Amino acid sequence: xxxxxGRKPSKKRRQRETKFQDDKIYFExxxxxxxxxxxxxxxxxxxNGLEPILVRAGLKTILKLRKVMVIKGDTVRLEMNPxxxxxxxxxxxxxxxxxxxxxxxxxxx
Length: 109
Hints:
Blueprint: H1 11-23, E1 25-35, E2 39-44, E3 53-59, H2 61-65, E4 75-80, H3 82-85, E5 93-99
């Protein structure tokens, strides 16, 4: 068996990786706009009849590598960082982590 080479990540790095995974906030929304460079405008519905919010979201790298197509009208899952939600300019930013699986509609008889 070949010898495994490489070091373990430092303790600080390991703590940072686990910290960020627990810090994320997840939403589901609908793509309403497309911008250049795989950036999309996603509309997230809010409860209690409040107006929806528009989030500017980019594709996660693994989706780019797998060449996942996202078009207007798709339902997608978003991942947002709490720091992005409290930005000074008021623009909400997020990352699209996948397309939501929506069951196909059967034709009406």
